[in-house]
C-alpha cells in the first residue's frame, strides 16, 4: 500500500485532456446503453411474473438506449462540457424514473438499487461534483416518486413519516454512494494512469540503455579503427628507418666488406643481424595484430586439412632435416579457419625448428572428450625448461639463446608466434598448454570447444 | 646494354633511395623523387623536371608524405600515356587493404620492401623483366 500512496502523492495526476474525457464518455455511454438493454431484457423476461406492461416502457427504453448510442458516437463533441454531462444524467435519471413508475407496483427498495446505477455511471463520465449532482437528482426523483405513490404506499401500510424517513435514507445512501464511487473510481483511474506512466518510464529507460549500448559499440569500433591506424603508423615510422639502416649496412658490407679488417666486418655484420632481428620483431608484431584483429566468419574446420596445408608449406624444412611426421585422425571444430590454420602452422613450424636433423620425429594427434576437442603436436626436440613454460606464450617471450641450441646452433625467432597461438585459441574460448623438459621433447596441446565458443 | 633504361624511384626515405640507387645504378638510369607531387611533376615533365625522361617503370612507396600510392596511381591513370608505365608499389607491411587499393588503382605489383640489398635487387629486376622489358602493357593488371 505504501508505495502506491507514495506514487500518488509524488507523481502528477492524469491530465483531463479533451481526448481523455471523450474516451471516458464514450465507454460510459456504451456501458449505459448495454445496462439499459439488460434492464429491459430483465423486465421482458419477468413481465408475466410481475405483470409488467411492456408496451408502456418499450419506446422509453429504446429512446434512452438510442440516446446513449448517439452520445457515444459524438462523445468528442460534448465530453469536455460539464453541463452536457449534467443534462445527460438528468435526462437519464428522469426517464428511468418514468419507466419505473410506468412499470407499476412501486417497490422503494428496488427503486433505490436502480438509482445506484446512474450514480456509478455518472462517475464513469467524470469524477467530480457531477457525481453528487446525479446522486441528488436521483434522491429528488425518489422523493417525487414517493409523493406520487403517496396513497398507494399508505395502502400497503407505509405511513407518511416512514415515507419521509425512506426519502431521507435514500438521499443519504445515494450521496454516500457518490462519495465512494468518486473516491475509488478516482483512485482506480489514477492507479491505472500511474501504471501506464511506469510502463512508459521503463520503456524510455530501456530505449535509453539500448541507445547507450549502441553508442558504446560505436565507440569500441572507433577505438578499434584508432588502434589500427596507430599500429599502421608505428609500423611505417619504425620499420622505414630500420629497413633503411639494414639496406645501407648491407650495402656497406657487400661493397666494402672485403676491404675491412675482421673486427670492422664483424661489427657491420652485427649491425645487420641486430637490425634484422628488430625488423623481424616489428614484422611479427604486425602479423599478430593483423591476424588477431581480422574479422572472420566461423565455420566447421577440418583440423586434418589445416595440418596438411601447414606441412605442405613446411616441406622444404622437413625435407632438409629429414624429419618424420606422423599424423593421427583429427577431429573437426567450429571456428575461424584462417586463424586456426595459423595456430597449426605455428605449432608445426616450431616442432620442425626445434628437432635435431636426421632424428626428428613429430606426432600430430587429435581427440574429443566432454564437448571439447584437442590437438596435440609432440616432438622429440630440445624441449623447454619448465621455468619458461609460461613465458613462451607471452609476447616476445623466448627461451634464452644459449639454452636452446639445435645441432649446435642458436635458433632464431622473435617470441611472437606462441603469443599469436595463445590469443587465437583463447578467442575461440579454448586453451593451450605445454608439457616439456629439456632434452625430452615438447608437446603442445590445444583444447577447443567442439561446437565453438564464439 | 646500349643505353641505360630510365627508372623512377619514389620514396620519402632517403636511406631507401640511397640503397635503391646503389642496387640499380649498374643496370638502370635511376631517377629519384621524395614525394607524390614531385613524381607527378617528373612524369608530366613540369618544372623542375622539364627534360625528364619517360621511365620504363616506377618503384613507388605506398606511404608518401603528401599522398599515398593509390592517389598517385589515380593521377597517372588519368593520362593514357602515363597509365601505360608499369608501377611496382612497395610498402613496409603487407596489409591486404593496401595491396587491394594499389592494385585497384592500377599497380602491376604490390610487395613488402625487402631490407637486404640482394633481395631488393632481385625484386626490382624481376618486376622489370616481367612487366617492363617488353615495353608493352600486359593485359591483366595483377
What would your notes on this structure say?
The complex is a heterodimer of chains A (454) and B (142). Mean pLDDT of chain A is 85; it is low at 1-10. Chain A contains 14 helices and nine strands. In chain A, helix 6 (82-103) packs antiparallel against helix 7 (108-125). Chain A has a five-stranded mixed beta sheet, covered by helices on one side. By secondary structure, chain A is an alpha+beta fold. Chain A has two domains: 1-293, no CATH class; 296-449, 2-Layer Sandwich (Heat Shock Protein 90), CATH 3.30.565.10. Chain A has helices at residues 2-10, 18-45, 47-50, 54-73, 75-78, 82-103, 108-125, 129-148, 150-155, 160-256, 262-293, 303-321, 337-354, 417-427; strands spanning 299-302, 324-327, 332-335, 361-369, 372-379, 405-406, 409-410, 431-436, 442-449. In chain B, 40% of the residues lie in helices and 18% in strands. In chain B, helix 1 crosses helix 6 and helix 2 runs parallel beside helix 3. Chain B is globular, with a radius of gyration of 14 Å. Residues 136-142 of chain B have low confidence and may be disordered. Chains A and B meet through helix 10 and helix 11 of A and helix 1 and helix 6 of B.
Oligomer: heterodimer
Distance between the termini of chain B: 28 Å
Most extensive interface between two protein chains, with residue counts: A-B, 22 and 18 residues
Radius of gyration of chain B: 14 Å
Please give the CATH class of chain B.
Alpha Beta
Order of helices and strands of chain A: HHHHHHHHHHHEHEEHEEEEHEE
Report the count of strand segments of chain A.
9
Which stretches of chain B of 5+ consecutive residues score pLDDT under 50? 136-142
User: Main β-sheet of chain A, in a few words?
Assistant: 5 strands, mixed
